[in-house]
Amino acid sequence: MDVLALNCGSSSVKYQLFNWDERCVIAKGMVERVTIGDSFISHEVPGKDTYTEKSECPDHRTAIDLIISTLLHPTHGVVKDMHEITAVGHRVVHGGEEFTRSVAIDKDVLDAIKSVQHLAPLHNPPNISGIEAAQSVLPDVPHIAIFDTAFHQTMPDHAYIYPLPYEWYTEYGVRRYGFHGTSHLYVSKRAAINLGKPITECKIITLHIGNGVSHTAIKNGVSVDTTMGFTPLEGAMMGTRCGDIDPAIPAFIMDQEGCNPIEIDSLLNKKSGVMGITGRYTDRRDVIENAKKGDYRCKLALEIEAYRIKKYIGAYAAVLGGVDAVVFTAGVGENAGIIREKAVEGLEYMGIKIDKEKNMRTFSKHGETEISLPDSPVKVFVIPTNEELVFVEDVVAILNDTYTDHMECSYTFASSDYKG
Fold this sequence. Notes:
Blueprint: E1 2-8, E2 12-19, E3 24-32, E4 40-44, E5 51-54, H1 60-71, E6 85-92, E7 103-104, H2 107-115, H3 124-137, E8 143-147, H4 157-160, H5 166-172, H6 181-195, E9 203-209, E10 213-219, E11 222-226, H7 249-257, H8 261-270, H9 273-278, H10 284-292, H11 296-320, E12 325-329, H12 330-335, H13 337-344, H14 356-361, E13 369-370, E14 379-382, H15 387-399
Parallel strand pairs: 1-6, 6-8, 9-12, 12-14
Antiparallel strand pairs: 1-2, 2-3, 3-4, 4-5, 7-8, 9-10, 10-11, 13-14
């Protein structure tokens, strides 16, 4: 059984073809610059050199056509016939309150996804375009939607309702939704295995730190609070997003500089965070390298990011009533030892003690690693995330009619026998 996972952005389409029988990725890649010109595909097959081809993709339908033709390519492809693709899993960023789990896509589901696209205007429209394009290219296979927001629908109302006029929630859906759900789901279940405890007995803080950043408090296996909110702008400092700020600042800057709402939204989403502080960088490797050379703004960016992570660790420890484990994941969380060290520095009073040398030696390529000291009451893990595997397992479970929700679903990675 080959499952194609698609992640459609506004100007890109990421894909991964997974062979469920062999439990392995047989191809993955990305079509970049979709809709904006000079499009190209980068296609990776294990054991082979990366294949790149330029091909104009004015829309997502053309991009998905390109992916399929590449998968079928006589030299670079990995399947002989489109019928080898059993199903397609689609990442959908926002499911609103409508979806609490992954679902097979029919007309009603697609209409429901469209009905909440105003809640994620940068993400849901390309997700929808990708679904419709894939359905037209692969009309005879099931298409499954996997939602970023679904994992967080277990939050209690006191965690997701904002202290705003209540009618804004009832009339417009203004509330905390949370994102990166598949990542938080995956690493929390792996953390429970590493703790040697049932996830239903664990208190875990998961720190997804990449260009986008979100943290989640997970109690007894379910999300009880998370940093991203109505949009992915709230919460932690990110590569280009500001995270938490005084909400009066946008109106003040609009008045001072004559910005309109669209311009201020762009500034907060694309010119803030690490980019805003350094003025040049979003890649933390560049920030760390230049901080070592004495660049004040790069050093400041590292300090601000780590300080804000630390604040959320403390806040979520209070929410959970204690912590069994803190988990770092995603590109920065898995590879930036200096940020991990600074984020937990001074938290020994909470029972968090890390092995500093081991921490600095730990990267994604080392797999799941405990970086806390043996006598640390709170364990600290670096766990590489695998959101695509969650996609695939949800798809397979739905096809086999064994899917319920993430607490009851028998994920392979929730087993102590699993080897990532």
